[in-house]
Amino acid sequence: MQLKSVDVVKSISPGDFKNNYYHTHTPLVIKDLSKQWTAYEKWNWQYFKELVGDQKVALYNNVKSDAYTPINTADDYKTFGEYIDMISQGPAGWRIFLFNIFDHAPQLIKDFTWPDHLMKGFVKRYPMLFTGGATSITHMHFDIDLSHILHTQFIGRKRVLLFPFEEQYKLYRKPFEVLSLADFSNYYDPQNSKVDYQKFPALQYARGLEIILEHGDTLFMPAGYWHHMEYLDSGFAMSLRALQTSLTGKLNGVWNLFGMRNIDTLMKKAAPKPWYNWKQEKIFHRAEQAIR
Known about the structure:
Blueprint: E1 2-5, E2 7-9, H1 14-22, E3 28-30, H2 39-42, H3 45-52, E4 56-59, E5 76-79, H4 80-88, E6 95-99, H5 101-104, E7 128-132, E8 137-141, E9 148-154, E10 158-163, E11 207-213, E12 218-221, E13 226-231, E14 235-242, H6 247-270, H7 272-291
Parallel strand pairs: 1-11, 2-3
Antiparallel strand pairs: 3-12, 4-5, 6-7, 7-14, 8-13, 9-12, 9-14, 10-11, 10-13
C-alpha cells in the first residue's frame, strides 16, 4: 500500500474547507472543532453509564463476516453499562456501532453544535455513537448511504486507514457489498499484520491515507471513502452525517440501501454457494484489471 498522512489543521475557515477539502473530496482532521462543545469535557464513560447504562446494545467482535453472513449481524448483546465495565477492565475486541444514544438521552443534543458553517445537508435525526474496546477493529468498508461524515473522537486513540472510492477494485471490494474481501488488521505492524499481498497483490498499488485520532479530533471523511479503524485504547466517537448535494449522489445512496443490499441478502439466502463463487471470480478479475 502507498500511504500518506491526512492533512491536519487546528481550525479552518468555511471557504478554505469547501474549496480545498469538501469539493475536492479530500479527508481532513480538524483539531479544535469540538473543543468549543460542552461534550468535549463532559462526555465520559461514567456520564454515559448514568444516562443509558440499562439500555441493551448490539456488540460486534473482530471476526470478518464471510460470504454467507448478512451485513450488520450482531455477535452478542449486553446492557451499555455491562459493556462499559467490560472494556474498562482492559483490552477487549468488542465494539458498538450505529447506536443512536440520542434516542435514549435526547439532552445530549445540547452538548454539541452542528457545524453547518462547513457543510449543509446534515441528517440531524441520526447522530451516531461508535464505541470500541482497545484492540477492537472496524474492518475496511465504505458507508452504504454515501454520506459525508464528520467523525469526532472522544476518549482514547484510534488508528484510521483511508482510501478514495476509486480504489475499490484494488481493495478487493465484494460485489453488491460495501466490504473488502482483504483483511487489513494490524496493517501497520509487520510482525502481526494480516495483510496478505500474495493473495491480494493489487493492495500493493492502492493509494491511501492514515491518521491516529485523539480526544477531540474531528475527521472529515468524504462520501464513499473506504475506512478501516483500529482502537488503540478503549474509546468512543460521534459521527455526524451530511447528504451529498448532488441528485446523483443521493440516488446512489438510495440504491445501495434499498436495492444493492436487498439483492445481496436475498442471494445469500437463495443461492449462497453460486453467489459466493460468482463474487470470488468478479473480485479477482476486477483486481487484475486494476493492476493492468
